[in-house]
Model the fold of this input.
Amino acid sequence: MTTILWPEATTAANYYWVNGTGNWSEYATHWAIVTTPTSASDYHVQVPTSMDDVFFGSYSGFSVGNNTVTIDQTIVFCKDMTWTGVTGNPVFTNTGSPSLRIYGSLTLDAGMTYAITSSIFFNATSTGKTITCAGMVINGPVFEGIGGE
Done:
């Protein structure tokens, strides 16, 4: 008997945070495939993976001051995380001691509040990645990616 195995096709996706305050795990109401979703089919069916880029911006629905994006899972992943052009001073925070694992670059925005109390693990395995703090302090960054820069 012969068994043939082939890898399942995997592709990276863009995840856009929309609808203001919420938890990272709420993919069906906050992680959209477009910046202006109009139907349920415009949302992802799972949270971001280590291959996916996540974006927070003027389209994120942070119109009222101090909206909060909360990491509410034990481990969360993404490739690049980009906060640019956000309005309303959103807060990025966590509950418990989650593991935030970024496999690419991180860009924070001066118009936000970074309140993550646990370490961020940077797991890039290739060069050319950047960390832009926009004046914020990242608690205990851990660099684990072999070959990353």
In short: The helical segments are 27-30. The chain is about 5% helix and 30% strand. The chain has a mean pLDDT of 91.
